What we know:
Helix content: 40-55%
CATH architecture of the domain at 33-224 and 244-280: 3-Layer(aba) Sandwich
Radius of gyration: 22 Å
CATH class of the domain at 33-224 and 244-280: Alpha Beta
Amino acid sequence: xxxxxxxxxxxxxxxxxxxxxxxxxxxxxxxxxxxxxxxxxxxxxxxxxxxxxxxxxxxxxxxxxxxxxxxxxxxxxxxxxxxxxxxxxxxxxxxxxxxxxxxxxxxxxxxxxxxxxxxxxxxxxxxxxxxxxxxxxxxxxxxxxxxxxxxxxxxxxxxxxxxxxxxxxxxxxxxxxxxxxxxxxxxxxxxxxxxxxxxxxxxxxxxxxxxxxxxxxxxxxxxxxxxxxxxxxxxxxxxxxxxxxxxxxxxxxxxxxxxxxxxxxxxxxxxxxxxxxxxxxxxxxxxxxxxxxxxxxxxxxxxxxxxxxxxxxxxxxxxxxxxxxxxxxxxxxxxxxxxxxxxxxxxxxxxxxxxx
Length: 356
């Protein structure tokens, strides 16, 4: 009887060890190696600092609530969503910009950012303010891969690329800086045709980074762009109200982006694409600000909050708000750090945690 009990205990211990080993290996398999970012000002962490453009934010009062109270080139008073995502994935609190001379390959192993404020899927969009086009962001990515191979070797590089999460947030400028602003674009496309044009570029883009090892990819939708303070200010039909025509375009575009995500998941072997949509959480914040602790939605913190962005956000403006946490938007185009955090938490808990 004692021998039987001994064998039972032995086998129980054996299976218990296997059980915990399985959990450990599952955790290792689900580990995120890095966060790799492409996109526009919604996620740019400082790449525009290093290029010849008027669209910059590497000066005060930008970054006043960032660690150390320093402007970094983020279009906010603090962190942007990808910084929070990186932290939630168990990586560092900030995703460094690839063109920032203060960082090197040792910093880029667990996260790197190629985004450029003002850019879009369409090349015309990036030319409006002379910023980095999406194709150039891909070239920087290829350059990064080559340097990574030299730094950590071929096998480790392939592992990092395979287990990284790729965050793509882009598209708003294609509509607001390009289609609705430039008469030449309207002559070439109807709104649905332009949406399809952007979706096709997004598809080509995903195929391109997939060919270089990307497997875990988040494609973001566009926000309720008709509710940005600048768009509300210039809404001649109802000043300070959201431009619902623009919001409807955002909804249409996001529906097409979601369809693209479903298509990519069936077409590309081993890929895992998620649709990360900021539209509804930001619209909820704007419609019911008191639920989130906000006082002001129709204007931003910087200056008058109606039209200011980039160099118009002057440090010595007496109109700039004292407490950015009471405002949904930091400047007339970009959310405050608090809004970025709320959106990031929502999107991580509902969508992006599936990469873990």
